[in-house]
Automatic annotation (TrEMBL):
<keyword id="KW-0675">Receptor</keyword>
<dbReference type="Pfam" id="PF07715">
    <property type="entry name" value="Plug"/>
</dbReference>
<keyword id="KW-0813">Transport</keyword>
<keyword id="KW-0798">TonB box</keyword>
<dbReference type="InterPro" id="IPR037066">
    <property type="entry name" value="Plug_dom_sf"/>
</dbReference>
<keyword id="KW-0998">Cell outer membrane</keyword>
<dbReference type="Pfam" id="PF00593">
    <property type="entry name" value="TonB_dep_Rec_b-barrel"/>
</dbReference>
<dbReference type="GO" id="GO:0015344">
    <property type="term" value="F:siderophore uptake transmembrane transporter activity"/>
</dbReference>
<keyword id="KW-1134">Transmembrane beta strand</keyword>
<protein>
    <submittedName>
        <fullName>Heme/hemopexin utilization protein C</fullName>
    </submittedName>
</protein>
<dbReference type="InterPro" id="IPR036942">
    <property type="entry name" value="Beta-barrel_TonB_sf"/>
</dbReference>
<keyword id="KW-0472">Membrane</keyword>
<feature type="signal peptide">
    <location>
        <begin position="1"/>
        <end position="25"/>
    </location>
</feature>
<feature type="domain" description="TonB-dependent receptor-like beta-barrel">
    <location>
        <begin position="250"/>
        <end position="736"/>
    </location>
</feature>
<dbReference type="InterPro" id="IPR039426">
    <property type="entry name" value="TonB-dep_rcpt-like"/>
</dbReference>
<keyword id="KW-0812">Transmembrane</keyword>
<dbReference type="GO" id="GO:0044718">
    <property type="term" value="P:siderophore transmembrane transport"/>
</dbReference>
Amino acid sequence: MRFRINRTAALIAAFGASGMVPAVAADGATAAAAAGTERPAQLAPVVVEESRLQPLPAANRVDEETMRALRPATSDTASMLRDVPGVHLQGAGGVSSLPVIRGLADDRNRIIVDGMDLIASCPNHMNPPLSYLDPNGVSKLRAIPGVTPVSLGGDSIGGTIIAESLAPRFAAAGQGLLLSGEAGAFYRSNGNAWGGNLAAVVANENLSANFSATTAKAANYTAGGNFKNFTATGNPGRTLARDEVGSTAYETHNYQFGLAYRQSDHLLEFKYAYQDIPEQLFPNQRMDMLGNTANRFNLRYLGQYDWGQIEARAYYESVDHLMDFGPDKRFYYGMASGGHNAVVGMPCSPISATCAAGMPMKTDSNTSGVTLRADVNLGVNDLLRVGGLYQHYRLDDYWPASGGAMWPLTFDNINDGTRDRLGVFGEWESRLDAQWTTLLGVRYERVTTDAGPVQGYNPNINFTTMMMGGMPMRSYNNQQADAAAFNAQDRKRTDNNWDLTALARYTLDAQTDLEVGVARKTRSPNLYERYTWSTWSMAAVMNNFVGDGNGYYGDIDLDPEVAYTVSASVDWHASDRSWKLRATPYYTRVKDYIDAIRCNNTTTCPPPNATTTNQFVVLQYANQSAELYGIDLSGELPLARTGYGDFGVNGVVSYTYGKNRDTGDGLYNIMPFNARLALTHRIGGWDNALEFVGATSKDQLSDVRNEIGTPGYGLLNLRASYSWKQARLDFGIDNVFDKLYYLPLGGAYTGQGTTMMINAIPWGIAVPGMGRSVYTGLSFKL
């Protein structure tokens, strides 16, 4: 394989290494080399030194050392982004937290896993895209906040997160058969968490096969300080330890098989992945995941030509998802004669049409897609990227009859829901001179959604009389009227969405880079925002992917969100980047932001739903307008090089403010001012850190949701690792002083008790964070 070493090759190589051009090696070699080829890299210094080009915009890559240090400490891949400026985590299950980029969470960000746009198929978003990768199965992870190139954007208004599993490896020329592998295990004291990983590769120069398997399991974790859960304060729920945080246990298994073939400048790669999660409990949801199986098939072609490179991909995913009450939430829901008078807390056996021990909720989905992109060399200093995608998504969300008020029919939450995306983009990057680099792009997507007719458990009743504390209480559900109104509408919607991006970098001198960018980005509503239809509080609280304890239902007529973002960055650094400091202020205004309004129909949402300030409520998704602004700071500084090792400091500081411009209300789940600072030490095979993590009190709240505030906190963490030959030992202590704190983005604590009823559990308690946890991990490479 031969390539001209010129500025064009250097341009492609630099962008490929950062994800701007997929899978092009940093040494300017072939597509096969980008996939992990064991080839000599003697050309690398020549190309890199000539181009001196950094990716535009600057992508925040999680480096390999950071990932290796975090793998024993977490089973949640999203949490490995915690050192990325502007990225925070919305609390969920132990392996399913949702990334928040500059105040915009979940579906508002594009998350690409091995080139696939995966979708959370759950009314609580318990299976987000990153939950399908175990931290030990991630080889590359990076985030681009805010202004994103159109080649990496689409159907999102926040940023883009790109995760890649293990890439294929090939033997070097003349090496013969390549055999390699890795094995590891970890243990964490809090929650008695443990797990392991195994990976193996067999390859020659042209053919490569790999296999990986990971597993992780944990019981409920305990909070620090003097946390008292519901059991300790006399409220209903399974008997827990005094400081135990209910519904935080999990168990997960992930497997992947890969096969790749390369010939000259061409690579053909196939991956099959399977996930089985028999249990993942959620402390901020009314339900738990009691089963999630997924199958993913991913076929990719990558080819290098004289004019540039081309990449094509086809993929398919099927998901079978089950929710019900986990052990901390399970209670019996018995019906008296007549089928309309319920008694909560009365055991009943056997389960029959008038007696339920749970409320099964099932979700089946399949996603298929194709993508095509080409990177075309227009000249020495110009690169054109063009491409397109088609994705078809189908969803059935249904709740089988289980007795009590939940019978005799199946409740159709979303019936035959579909969401199709068809998109194309064009992007031109140009190096004007030694100081200026610019990028211009335009993207068009056509998003079509639809859903079939629905029915409730019992379309012939509009309320259920329930006994609470010996007193009758009317639960308004209005299933008949809600279903009839939904079915009478034309439910098909088509959105024509446009994204525009302009970016520029100016190199002032060897120590200062300036970047500025503006973007128009568009996201269409997801199926749950458009097609959930029941105002019944019991059904509504099951449709909640923000974890605030409230109930939600949709609006077919929602418009797409359109965000206008401007950001600027100043990057100061040493000529050799031994120290660096980066500051990025930003501002975003969102037209038709999908916020929420109170249900005030007294027939379906009786008082005090419209006015209460200290209870959970029922809300409807609604288009309004919003603005967000803030600043991200990050830096790294060497302190001293001594006979006792090298000392340094690094950190990230972030501030975000978000407001609903129509109402003046705060936006939900905005992270308060926060910082993560670390003192690092390296000597020989040792790599150690003393880390401070803190946040101020959260008091800018979403009043329409009765959002729960959290006090400020500061935590101390310790970690150390020692590497020798092909082995590595990790050790750490999180929350060294066992402090009680509450997660600012953790939502409402609904992790135990009778969570079916909207206000049967105490309001005003945020999810507490984990107390002291000692962890260790051991890994071997062959």
